[in-house]
Write a structure and sequence with these properties.
This protein is of the alpha/beta class. It has one domain: Rossmann fold. It contains eight helices and nine strands. The protein has a five-stranded parallel sheet with strand order 2-7-1-8-9. Helix 6 runs antiparallel to helix 7. About 35% of the residues are buried. About 5% of the residues have low confidence. The structure holds guanosine-5'-diphosphate and adenosine-5'-diphosphate. Guanosine-5'-diphosphate (GDP) binds next to strand 5, strand 6 and helix 5. Its EC number is 2.7.4.8. Belongs to the guanylate kinase family. It comes from Amphiprion percula (Orange clownfish). Keywords: ATP-binding, Cytoplasm, Kinase, Nucleotide-binding, Transferase. This is Guanylate kinase.
Length: about 210
């Protein structure tokens, strides 16, 4: 009885395991995580990163990213406000401590959408997330999806395709990821993502309905 009580209090204090989604730009990370957060809005919370890139049409400051200047971002890094940060395709990106704490304070599963440098750096912390790689079916499909998304200049597109090759190689390193999902047919990949997280989803639902 006491054991059950304490273990419940302890797991509530420790909070659910965060989830890292990583993979090439254009692989479908945002699409998948938005679907997940829509179906399980009381289970998942998004870690809102900082970036120096410009907002795209439809993106909202504070929801998709915190859009900042290089000076502001660097000052935050120097101040120790970030868990990790990286340079990607000519812009700075980073996960602040506050971004993760805000989600964890609500007892939600924190989802981080970060590149492979972020994955490497998070592995040096005590965050202990589940690492999920989202991969495109092929480079050709990736290029088509990025072009059809119409968010990138030709230069930015080429940079992302170059980075994608490196990201795809990284995902093959043994132990880099717990789960690898090839995002071909969206509904299938979404099903795989949900299945991979079902155990954590049930844990959170149990804790949040019993407290
Ligand atoms: N290391 C790190 N990478 C991030 C962070 N936020 C976003 N990224 C990654 O930066 C890359 C570019 O993101 P973005 O400009 O939104 O382009 P998109 O992935 O093509 O939609 C992606 O690989 C993201 O996963 C962060 O806080 N830290
Ligand atoms: N399974 C899929 N089939 C076809 N198009 C997809 C699929 N998944 C994502 N897309 C589309 O591909 C583009 C890139 O997806 P996005 O979620 O923005 O990728 P990421 O966040 O990894 O950069 C978007 O226009 C999205 O609508």
């Amino acid at each position: 009885m006491y054991m059950r009580y304490f273990s419940r209090v302890f797991s509530a204090m420790a909070g659910p395991r965060p989830v890292v989604l990583s993979g090439p730009s254009g692989a479908g990370k945002s699409t998948l995580l938005k679907k997940l957060m829509k179906e399980y809005d009381s289970v998942f919370g998004f870690s809102v990163s900082h970036t120096t890139r410009n907002p795209r049409p439809g993106e909202e400051n504070g929801r998709d990213y915190h859009y900042v200047t290089r000076e502001v971002m660097q000052a935050g890094i120097d101040n120790g406000d970030f868990i990790e940060n990286a340079e990607f395709s000519g812009n700075m990106y980073g996960t602040s401590k506050a971004a993760v704490q805000d989600v964890q304070a609500k007892n939600l599963i924190c989802i981080l959408d970060i590149d492979m440098q972020g994955v490497r750096n998070i592995k040096r912390t005590d965050l202990n997330p589940i690492y999920i790689s989202i991969q495109p079916p092929s480079m050709e499909v990736l290029e088509k999806r990025l072009r059809d998304r119409k968010t990138e200049s030709e230069e930015s597109l080429q940079r992302r395709l170059h980075a994608a090759k490196v990201e795809m190689e990284f995902s093959k390193e043994p132990g880099a990821f717990d789960v690898i999902i090839v995002n071909d047919v969206l509904e299938d990949s979404y099903g795989q993502l949900r299945n991979a997280l079902l155990e954590e989803i049930h844990k959170v639902k149990k804790i949040n309905t019993s407290s």
